[in-house]
Amino acid sequence: PTVGGGCDRGDRARDAPTFCGRSAMDRVLQYNFGYLPPRAGLASDLPLSHLAAEILGPRSKKMKTAAGADARNGAGQKAALERRCVNYVRVLSAEMVQAANSGHPGAPMGCAPMAHVLWSGVMSYDPADPEWINRDRFVLSNGHACALLYSMLHLTGYGVSIDDLKQFRQLDSITPGHPENGVTPGVEVSTGPLGQGISNGVGLAMAQAHLGATFNREGFSLIDNFTYVICGDGCMQEGISSEACSLAGHLQLGRLIVLYDDNKIQIDGATSLAFSEDVGKRYEAYGWQVITVHDGDNSLESLRIAIERAQSDLYRPTLLRISTTIGFGSAKQGTAGVHGAPLGHADLATLKSSFGFDEAQFFAVPSDVQAAYRAAGAAGTAKHASWKALLGEYAAAHPALAAEFERRRAGELPAGWREALASLEWDKPLATRQSSQLVLNKLCEVVPELVGGSADLTPSNLTKFKGAADFQAASPEGRYIRFGVREHAMAALCNGMHAYGMLRPFCATFLNFFGYAAGAVRVSALSHFGVLYIATHDSIGLGEDGPTHQPVEALVNLRATPNLLTLRPADANEVVGAYMVAMERPKTPAVIALSRQSCANLAGSRAEAVARGAYVLRLAAGGPPQLVLVGTGSEVQTLEQAVPLLEGVRVQLVSMPCCELFDSQPREYKHEVLPPGVPVLAMEALAAEGWCKYAHSVIGMRSFGCSAPAKEVQKRFGFTADNAALRARELLQHYANKPAPDLLDRPDN
After folding, report:
1. Contact 256, 262 (CB under 8 A)
2. Quick one: pLDDT at residue 75?
3. Number of H helices, E strands in the chain
4. Which residues, listed in sequence order, are joined to residue 3 by a DSSP beta bridge?
């Protein structure tokens, strides 16, 4: 279906004031009222004057009563004010970019009508409480257009001042160059890497569907918000959006509405240079409702009708394909030249003048525009008040559910969850992915907000917990998500679910395939979303699948990411500790790397010791240590086997499940674990890079692996007790006549 009459986009792109239509009356109606289609049909070839006549009735002297004249004048005044609001948003966005001498004015100017319709009457939000749990979620997926978002937040009354807008893209401002959640009130997710935002939007809609199914009861729709996403051509081209939107269609997320800014321009020029597919047909194939709005530059009424149609279909997500002109009103409108550079003072002055604003004034919000948007914000505050009253009634009718609702809303973990994990006992060696399965089962039993799944590797990742029902279109209350082979989207969906609140998402694949998900994992860390990433088959020890599946560089990449914990437990006790660490840090994502092969239950291993990053498993016998052996994961048992082979050497055995946590410890503790002057040999069946911070010699990977049974692969690359003992004696010989340098003795450590 389409909304709005057809017209030649090229003509409109060249000349913003030109209106589509067949007569002078059409142009007048377009200018004054926007497009006026019949409510009964969303598409028509009739001229606007005819359509207006159908809606407004025939002109006659009888209509010219005082009441009729007042009604027409009122409608005209409202339409004029709305045009003025839209045009001021265009001006304000362009002013921000001009003041910073940096940024992207084109998309905000083209998308201003969409933002106006959403923020002036469609969305439910409360500027006084941006964290209201049942607010409609808004995601600006094309994050480079953030001047638009900051403009709307200021105008509607969020804690974004006009001075904040003047500090756009400046040091320590709350208006950074791309949206960052936790920095700017009202920003839900961090966007900028294209495709991430729309994928987060799918996660937000999944969270709404799950929480609504979990808590809503007859007469009490506590969680029924919509998620609105504005995105551009770049988001449509990124593969992650295809992954995410395919799953959204499968799950029938009807409360997800995406407004696609179809302006046919990207940085290199016209999108036709590289992008000629029919996006609408693609989304229809995903199972989405697709509605086309032909005049997104002027017709606010067409946008409203399209959104109403989208809201009425709760069994399909909706893509609104909206034709717009990038940089509408600028001398460079419709070209790539307005995408990523300020308009320039002359063009900005002309723009202001053409829209009826004083070209000499900057950041001067007209009082009527301010009043209109603040009224919209106040209406949202009133909706929130009504919702609070509903919550009070809900608590009286369903006290147990209400208590659980409030616990989750406060971000508190259930009482006794740590004790439940501590009760686990281990009587035989298990692959750490197997002990993870048992830990996850126990954790999901006592922490109902844990939801997640695997990228089509459930039998290998061992992530489906007992009693878990699948999250499907017919069962959104289910807690187990079949992400399919969509690693990148999987991580971004978890970011969206975490951003919603009241949920703690997890997801899983092989450690090697987190390379596919890396972009979204990085956003987790940047956004302070404590997603649990379960990464099995964590080394060359996975064996026969070979170097295409054997991770080598994976941990180096993950450990280098700020605000991300990478935990590689050595046995079942450390697996318990890894989950404890992850669960206690809701603002830090964690990757838990787990083995395919069995790991012995190590003497001296302790779950609580994982929180320190590294600890002594076995003290040297007979005096101070002469050598330290340190490893992670499955290699710790290999080092343990090497200790008896080092007869006559006082050996201290150390497990280091998390380098990042160890780095944060006091130097005194670090020296207990890695004593000064004592040679240190490290072993990890992944890249040797990074261990030079701790060890004087490293048994690690300096090439890709190979395809063979695990024990043969390990022997080929030196991950055996015999080789560890040999390399240890070589290290001791190297430092026989000199002390080993204290690698921790540095001013930045």
Report:
1. no
2. 82
3. 27, 21
4. 293
CB within 8 Å of 46: residues ≥ 6 apart: none
Query: 0.85 cut: is pTM over it?
Result: yes
Return d(Cα 502, Cα 449) in angstroms, integer: 7
**Segment 416-444, tens digit of pLDDT:** 999 999 999 999 999 999 999 999 999 99
Give me the count of residues in the chain.
749
Q: CA–CA separation, 634 vs 656, rounded Å?
A: 11
Strand partners, 470: 480
CB count within 10 Å of CB 364 equals 14
Which residues have C-beta within 8 Å of that of residue 651, sequence separation ≥ 6? 618, 620, 625, 626, 627, 628, 629, 643, 728
Q: What digits encode the pLDDT tens for the residues 353-396?
A: 999 999 999 999 999 999 999 999 999 999 999 999 999 999 99
pLDDT digits (tens, 9 = 90+) for 166-188: 999 999 999 999 999 999 999 99
Residue 365 in tokens? 């919000």
Tokens of 524: 């987790």
Q: Confidence band (pLDDT; 50, 70, 90) for 688?
A: very high
* pLDDT-derived band at 20, boundaries 50, 70, 90: very low
Chain center to CA of 155: 26
Q: Which residue has 């343990």 as its token pair?
A: 640
Using DSSP's 3-state secondary structure scheme, residue 446 falls into helix
589: buried, middle or exposed (CB in 10 Å: 19+, 13-18, 0-12)? buried
Q: What is d(CA 552, CA 538) in angstroms, rounded to the nearest whole number?
A: 9
Strands (E), 224-312: 227-231, 256-262, 265-266, 269-270, 289-293
For 506-560, how does the pLDDT look when each residue is reduced to its tens digit (9 = 90+)?
999 999 999 999 999 999 999 999 999 999 999 999 999 999 999 999 999 999 9
Return the bridge partners of 698, or none.
682
With residue 481 as reference, give the H or E element that holds it.
strand 480-482
Q: What is the rounded distance in angstroms from the CA atom of residue 96 to the CA atom of residue 117?
A: 21
Q: Is 189 exposed, middle or buried (0-12, 13-18, 19+ CB in 10 A)?
A: buried
Selection from 507, 510, 535 nearest residue 244 by Cα:
507
pLDDT of residue 61: 34
- DSSP readout, 523-561? HHHHHT---EEEEES-SGGG-TT-TTT--SSHHHHHHTS
Span 710-730, pLDDT tens digits: 999 999 999 999 999 999 999
Q: What is the CA radius of gyration of the chain?
A: 30
Active site residues: 487
Name the region of 452 (left: φ>0; alpha: ψ -120 to 50; beta: rest). left
Q: What is the pLDDT of residues 587-611, one digit of tens each?
A: 999 999 999 999 999 999 999 999 9
- Per-residue HEC secondary structure of 619-655 comes to CCCCCCCCEEEEECCCHHHHHHHHHHHCCCCCEEEEE
Cα 228 to Cα 211: distance, rounded to the nearest angstrom: 18
Q: Are 103 and 285 in contact (CB under 8 A)?
A: no
The residue to which tokens 């799953």 are assigned: 247
Q: How far apart are the first and last CA of the chain?
A: 62
Q: Assess contact for 735 and 717: CB atoms under 8 A.
A: no
